[in-house]
Amino acid sequence: MSRMDIAGHLTTHYSKTPQELFVYLVDAPKKYKVYEIPKRTSGTRTIAQPTPELKKYQSFVVSILKEYLPIHNCCMAYTDGRNIKQNAQIHSRNSFFLKMDLMDFFNSIIPKLLWEAFEREGVQLDWLDKEFLEKILFWKRSKYSKKLILSIGAPSSPFISNFLMYSFDKVLDEYCENNGITYTRYADDLTFSTKEKDVLFLIPDVVRETLVKFYGQKIKINHFKTAFSSKKYNRHVTGITITNSDEISIGRAKKRYIKHLVHKFVEERISLDDLNYLRGYLGFIKYVEPKFLISLEKKYTQNVIEKIRIGN
Fold first, then answer.
1. pTM above 0.70?
2. Per-residue pLDDT, 312
3. Which residues face 3 on adjacent strands?
4. What three-state secondary structure class fits 221?
5. Do residues 136 and 262 touch, judged by C-beta distance below 8 A?
6. Considering only CA atoms, which of 67, 69, 48 is closest in space to residue 153?
7. The dihedral of CA 123, 120, 66, 10: what is its sign?
8. Distant-in-sequence contacts of 205-210, Cβ < 8 A, 24+ apart
9. 61-106: per-residue pLDDT in tens?
């Protein structure tokens, strides 16, 4: 079992004694700016951003943890060299799909789950390491709550969540490899695909059993987002469509909507919110399906598309 001296790294890096660090970190779980943003479908998502100084502590701690803690190869989010486009391409040649989603993913992760994950990987922490990590990495949702959770908005949360899921990813990946199934995880989105009919129907039970094994009842499946699909219907992976010719695309419906917004821009009838959305989405189109961007430039001219992109 390897020993991780988080307290030693912190005191050396910040030239402070443990007592001085405690003074600052005692209220760190409350040092967040909280606001709501709309979800894609309905409702809002709570974003909790740490103060700039606390962000520096979080980033430094993650730089240390990365030397000790593994991330599985099937993890496609928040990892250098892997991205949302590659996540879709990995599944593009398969015909049968299962998509699953984890409920309130970041906010389900509490310190106890993290300490258990450390133990599974043979990494030893003493009480002082745990005390500092708890204060630096976790957020207290309200002054009336004693519960600490990961926040959406902290730069450390993506890495911590990916490490926490390592054991889960490893079990699922081994099961899938033995059954001719491709598995990837993009944050809380689980995607399974295969060329063989009917082999995916056992996966939800395997996922549920593995979650219980490692996390008890803390991390759960969002059953409303469990969906099977096949080549006969639309295949989607984290917002990207896979066509019947096994190419990745933004999808027909999205293309129609984008054309509609460009037309409104040309006629000077577009709202500021729609213009901001369009401007941001053009970058995504260039990344995922550059041919469609070329077709927009041919139809509306490069000058119009450039005006949208740069805001003139």
1. yes
2. 58
3. 124
4. strand
5. no
6. 48
7. negative
8. 206/172, 206/175, 207/100, 207/172, 210/168, 210/171, 210/172
9. 999 999 999 999 999 999 988 999 999 999 999 999 999 999 999 9
